[in-house]
């Protein structure tokens, strides 16, 4: 990639992994277009990381706002390409599929999948699909998850969005080959960011009248514990940096505090994994009998 490009767009930059990516790219001397939803978050990023940060205000579900941001970035780049797009913005929706309000699933997919498509459609020209620009092609890094390979019960809406993001990454990479715009994914395991605190706002008691209440309580506690013991977001930012700057980046980079468990999960027969999860969470007919529900 042309080093002169030296500018990246990071979506969902206000907290967590996005914010760590802003810090990393700014420290490496890049100009960072940082998408946030509140002007005050943009100001906070500028105050902390300096004038190389250019806040953009958009929600990934708001097509017109994304298009306005792309116009702004095109003007700022003055005829050069954007070096990287880090599609990081995302939310985690939890709940048992049998009882999940349909709007919750729609929201999950709209933010984590269609949102990334809206951003790609607006910014792919600036990454080099517009061949009138100078500076060589940029690169796209999609923030997937280990949930893009394996679906935990009650986190299936989130896993659906990340499995979809894996397909999106693969198909987009193939479609952007004529422009030499590479597209790769990062797959974090548990990372200590606010996304896990938001799990506390998933009130398991809303499923109190269902057979799933006890397994859900167990899963929520497990998620909160894993969130607290997760890697720092800077570990993911380092992986994103390598994905953007390596001459031949890995198509998927797993970043997790539990590499061995991740590896084992990858090779165990899926029926065996099903049984292990069911025993841990109490998702067995025997456990259901015992609760007397
Ligand atoms: P976070 O909640 O700190 O960050 C999410 C960011 O996305 C925030 O800046 C938020 O404002 C933004 N965002 C949410 N909805 C948006 C919308 N509609 N439009 C624009 N921006 C929106 O959480 P995080 O852990 O830093 O998550 C960042 C990404 O990393 C997500 O895609 C998440 O799925 C992924 N991820 C996180 C973990 C983890 O353990 N924390 C693990 C794997 C993958």
Provide structural commentary:
The protein is 50% helix and 12% strand. It is elongated and about 65 Å long. Helix 4 packs parallel to helix 5 (156-175). The protein has 11 helices and 7 strands. Strand 2, helix 2 (39-49) and strand 3 (53-57) form a beta-alpha-beta unit. With 293 residues, the chain is an alpha/beta fold. The longest helix has 28 residues, at 102-129. It starts with 6 loop residues before the first strand and ends with a helix. The protein has a 7-stranded parallel sheet, with helices on both faces. The chain binds nicotinamide-adenine-dinucleotide. Nicotinamide-adenine-dinucleotide is lined by residues 12-18, 37, 59-61, 88-91, 111, 143, 145, 188, 190-191, 193-195, 230, 233.
Bound molecules: nicotinamide-adenine-dinucleotide
The main sheet comes to: 7 strands, parallel
Provide the helix percentage: 40-55%
CATH topology: Rossmann fold
Report how far the terminal alpha carbons are from each other: 60 Å
Uncertain residue segments: 1-5
Along the chain, the helix and strand elements come as: EHEHEHEHEHEHHHEHHH
Cα-atom radius of gyration: 20 Å
Give the total of beta strands. Answer: 7
Structural classification: alpha/beta
The CATH architecture term is: 3-Layer(aba) Sandwich
Any idea what the shape is? Answer: elongated
- Superfamily (CATH H level) name: NAD(P)-binding Rossmann-like Domain
């Amino acid at each position: 990639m042309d080093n002169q490009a030296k500018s990246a767009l990071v979506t969902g930059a206000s907290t967590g992994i996005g914010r760590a990516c802003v810090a990393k790219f700014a420290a490496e001397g890049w100009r960072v277009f940082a998408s946030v939803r509140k002007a005050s978050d943009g100001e906070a990023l500028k105050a902390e990381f300096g004038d190389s940060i250019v806040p953009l205000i958009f929600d990934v579900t708001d097509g017109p706002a994304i298009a306005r941001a792309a116009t702004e970035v095109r003007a700022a780049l003055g005829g050069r390409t954007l070096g990287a797009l880090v599609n990081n913005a995302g939310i985690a929706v939890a709940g048992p599929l049998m009882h999940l309000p349909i709007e919750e699933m729609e929201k999950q997919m709209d933010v984590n999948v269609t949102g990334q498509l809206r951003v790609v459609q607006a910014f792919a020209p600036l990454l080099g699909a517009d061949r009138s620009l100078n500076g060589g092609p940029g690169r796209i890094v999609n923030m997937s998850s280990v949930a893009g390979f394996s679906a935990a019960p009650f986190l299936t809406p989130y896993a659906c969005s990340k499995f979809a993001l894996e397909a999106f990454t693969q198909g987009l990479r193939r479609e952007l080959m004529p422009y030499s715009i590479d597209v790769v994914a990062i797959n974090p395991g548990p990372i200590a960011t606010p996304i896990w605190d938001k799990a506390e706002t998933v009130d398991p008691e809303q499923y109190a009248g269902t057979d799933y209440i006890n397994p859900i309580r167990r899963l929520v506690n497990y998620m909160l514990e894993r969130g607290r013991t997760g890697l720092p977001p800077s570990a993911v930012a380092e992986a994103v940096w390598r994905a953007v700057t390596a001459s031949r980046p890995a198509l998927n980079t797993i970043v997790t505090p539990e590499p061995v468990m991740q590896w084992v999960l990858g090779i165990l027969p899926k029926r065996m994994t099903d049984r292990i999860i069911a025993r841990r969470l109490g998702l067995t007919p025997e456990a259901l009998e015992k609760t007397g529900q």
